[in-house]
Design brief:
The complex is a heterodimer of chains A (92) and B (719). With 92 residues, chain A is mostly helical. Chain A has helices at residues 2-22, 33-57, 63-91. Chain A is elongated, with a radius of gyration of 25 Å. The termini of chain A are far apart. Chain B has 719 residues and is an alpha+beta fold. In chain B, helix 2 (32-61) runs parallel beside helix 6 (123-144). The chains are: A mainly alpha (92), B alpha+beta (719). At the A-B interface, helix 1, helix 2 and helix 3 of A face helix 1, helix 2, helix 5, helix 15 and helix 16 of B.
Chain lengths: 92, 719
């Protein structure tokens, strides 16, 4: 009985592991690493803009400091979006 | 079924080796099918290890004494819950639990990343590392500590589970700790993957951050449960003893805490890349080191290490992990340069950096204190012990700084804080932080500088967190016009990581206040009392009213057949406060005579505890069983072939005799303030971590054709 069960487990494992080697290749989701890195950087930048605004609204930053930081962060975010578009266009 | 279990382990080892090879080959040759096959090997490894794990648990539940490990760690008299969880009280079972959890978390992260198509260049190398770690533990399980070893002549009864472990949270404690350890190997593996593949931007940190947080959460939970068990079950009245086993779990937790803070700096600013990857790698190595400390026998003595079968393989693994990590960081040092510099010392980045230094300093102190006895034994032959006073000398000041920083961090802005705003923001917390120790002094709490400082700094930190919530909700209200509760909820929902973190800070402040108060102001008395006699502790009169006993009345369901205890009346200034019932449970030892077996086995303390927000009254009893032991030995001689029923009857009669004519018993009585704050603080930390862990809703990702400035505004509006 145990021997039979071992054979069943072995067969199941072999099918699971070998399946990708025998079926036709599928396109995998997601973009190339450059796009992924830029997406992550963009998300972080947007989060930073939100957090800076929250810091201002909760009284940790003066309006002057916040406006200066916000403008710089938005410009950096726009640069990232531009780079992202370029990377995506390059990928086709 | 043992054959199937053993075969599953061998198949899993084969899968680990194949998974590592296929993943590396797929990554190097850029053949996606092989990478996918390697990933599926991890899923399959999880499947077959799960089968092996279920077989072992079932053997424990069925009391299948053909399994050697079941004979050594369970018995038919062990209650069902403890039989089901006894597997990980053994070396063999705990290694299997490790590899089961490792394969489960590995499968989860690889599945999530593959579905999203993320980290495609890093994941194959991370898969290989995870397979390598799984393979190591499977190798140990198969060749050095096999849980499926069988006996040719199974006995009718087993040794039973160690009575000290028959405590509900103690059975959850190992899976929680091991979940923490194994979860820390996930960011470790992806850190290695990022270094090997050269993909060193923040995306690997972003993708594995939740796993690092989950590791921190589970490890913290395991540490808290262990402390609670120590307080409630071990009969010494403390919750932390700087024991190497405790320290082993604290070290990766401290480094993990540092990483969770500094990772934010890399995500936001592209800074501290070397530091972050080093912290992740250190946490992974320390997680394996923690397992090694507990499982190798090295804690008992450097010589026990040599006798242990696991010692040398673990040392080799840790050396490979540590040296490999260092080598990779040096190799990639050029790509790990910071993208920005620190804008100002008045910034959250600077505070996080300081907090990191303190946390790593704490870890170093714990590391040195844990290993010093072993180093001294190796060099001099004598084991020089480093006790709690040594640890306290270094950890108390560092803990004070840490709690202070946890209060300053939330109020200081990223990049560059406005100094005048910061001063105004800190005014109320500072006032509270100064007022609280002064109030304590006025109330006559006592002149203990370190404790008073901790009360002040803790109050400062708590006020900061409260102020953060009030101001945040106020800002939200001003923008949306929501009612206060709705504004607060929306604020936390939109900023889970930030406000979850603040809740964690509040919990840690409460916990540290509890630790400072209970360790500084506790009163302890050990007294030998006869019924009617009284002892005094911390202004309380504790009177030994009468002895108690129970036979075959295992209301705590731990398997203790006989229990001897006491009724203690506690009063203050003549007014009754509470009644406590400490007792000691006796577990039979079948190798002893038919009657004395009921008293000669292991025994555990069941404490009598009156817990409250202000103070705990903790009591334990050590009954004097000299008379019982003498009479039981006599009964063994008179009735060598007594039936189990007759043996139990005689043992019960002896217990009744003890209660009728009780000898003096030894009591430990402790009056300790704010212990409950430790558990309460721990629960707040757990709640905060869960808030931070909770997944955010999916963001709409439509493509906006407008100009980049407008797109930034639009993306911000969506998120």
């Amino acid at each position: 009985m145990d021997f039979l069960l071992v054979l069943v487990v072995l067969a199941a494992v072999a099918v699971v592991v070998a399946w990708p080697l025998y079926r036709a290749a599928r396109p995998s989701p997601g973009g190339p690493p450059e796009v992924e890195a830029l997406e992550a950087a963009k998300d972080s930048k947007l989060q930073e803009i939100r957090e800076t605004e929250l810091d201002y609204r909760t009284g940790k930053l003066s309006e002057e400091d916040w406006r200066a930081q916000d403008a710089r962060l938005r410009s950096e975010a726009a640069d990232l979006l531009r780079e992202l578009d370029r990377a995506k266009a390059k990928e086709g | 079924m043992a054959i199937l279990g053993r075969a599953c382990l061998i198949i899993a080892l084969g899968l680990a080796l194949y998974g590592a090879g296929a993943s590396i080959y797929g990554a190097r040759a850029r053949k996606q099918a092989w990478v996918e096959s390697g990933r599926r090997a991890v899923y399959a490894m999880f499947g077959v290890v799960a089968i092996a794990f279920v077989i072992l648990i079932a053997a424990f539940i069925r009391s299948d004494f053909s399994f050697g490990v079941v004979v050594d760690h369970s018995s038919t008299t062990t209650p069902l819950f403890y039989r089901a969880t006894a597997a990980w009280s053994s070396q063999e079972g705990s290694l299997l639990l490790w590899v089961f959890l490792l394969s489960a978390w590995s499968s989860l992260i690889l599945f999530v990343l593959a579905r999203k198509g993320k980290l495609r260049e890093v994941a194959p190398y991370a898969t290989a590392v995870l397979c390598g770690l799984g393979g190591f533990f499977l190798f140990c399980s198969i060749f050095l500590a096999n849980p499926f070893g069988t006996l040719a002549n199974p006995p009718l009864e087993g040794a039973g589970l160690n009575p000290l472990l028959r405590y509900p949270s103690m059975m959850i404690h190992p899976p929680a700790l091991y979940s923490g350890y194994t979860l820390f190997t996930v960011p470790f593996a992806f850190g290695i993957g990022a270094l090997v593949s050269g993909r060193l931007d923040a995306s690997w940190i972003t993708s594995t951050r939740r796993f690092a947080l989950a590791a921190w959460f589970f490890l913290g939970l395991g540490i808290l449960l262990g402390a609670r068990w120590s307080y409630s079950e071990l009969g010494w009245g403390g919750y932390w003893a700087w024991d190497p086993v405790e320290n082993a779990s604290l070290m990766p937790w401290l480094v993990g805490t540092a990483f969770l803070h500094s990772a934010m700096i890399q995500e936001k600013r592209g800074m501290l890349k070397v530091w972050n990857v080093s912290l992740v790698l250190a946490a992974g190595v320390l997680a394996v080191l923690g397992t090694f400390l507990v499982r190798s026998g090295i804690l008992d003595s450097i010589h026990a290490f040599g006798a242990s079968t696991l010692g040398v393989p673990f040392i080799v693994l840790i050396a490979v992990m540590a040296l490999g990590s260092i080598g990779l960081v040096i190799w990639r040092r050029a790509s790990l340069r910071s993208e920005h510099r620190l804008d100002s010392l008045f910034s959250r980045e600077a505070i996080f950096l300081l907090n990191n230094l303190v946390l790593v300093g704490l870890c170093f102190v714990v590391f040195w204190g844990t290993f010093f006895p072993l180093i001294s034994e190796a060099i001099t032959g004598d084991k020089a012990a480093v006790g709690p006073p040594w640890f306290d000398r270094y950890t108390v000041p560092l803990a004070l700084i840490l709690v202070l920083l946890s209060g300053i961090g939330p109020v200081i802005a990223w990049r560059r804080a406005t100094v005048s705003k910061l001063a105004r923001y800190l005014a109320i917390p500072l006032a509270v932080g100064i007022a609280v120790p002064l109030l304590c002094l006025a109330l006559g709490v006592g002149h203990h500088l370190e404790a008073l400082l901790m009360f002040g700094i803790g109050a400062f930190s708590l006020t900061v967190v409260a102020q953060e919530f009030v101001r945040g909700a106020g800002a939200r209200r001003a923008m949306t016009g929501d009612a206060p509760p709705a504004a607060l909820l929306a604020l936390v929902r939109r900023n889970r990581r930030r406000y979850g973190g603040y809740v964690v800070h509040a919990g840690m402040a409460v916990l540290f206040i509890g630790v400072a108060a209970s360790s500084t102001f506790h009163n302890q008395r050990d007294a030998r009392l006869s019924p009617g006699q009284t002892t005094k502790v911390g202004g309380y009169d504790v009177r030994y009213v009468k002895p108690t006993f129970s036979v075959a009345d295992d209301h705590r369901n731990t398997g203790a057949i006989i229990s001897l205890g006491a009724v203690l009346d506690v009063s203050k200034n003549g007014k009754h406060v509470t009644t406590l019932n400490p007792s000691r449970g006796y577990y039979p030892d079948l190798s002893q005579g038919p009657v004395s077996r009921f008293y000669q086995g292991e025994s555990t303390s069941e404490v009598g505890l009156q817990a409250g927000l202000r103070r705990d009254l903790w009591t334990a009893i050590e009954p004097d069983t000299t008379q019982i032991d003498r009479l039981a030995a006599e009964a063994d001689r008179k009735f060598p072939n007594a039936t189990p029923q007759l043996s139990l009857f005689i043992a019960g009669t002896l217990a009744a005799g003890y209660a009728r004519k009780p000898p003096p018993a030894t009591f430990r009585v402790i009056d300790s303030p704010l212990v409950t704050w430790i558990w309460l603080g721990g629960l707040i930390v757990v709640a905060g971590a869960l808030i931070a862990l909770w997944p955010a809703g999916l963001r709409a990702r439509r493509r906006a054709p407008a100009g980049y400035g407008a797109r930034v505004a639009r993306e911000l509006g969506r998120a």
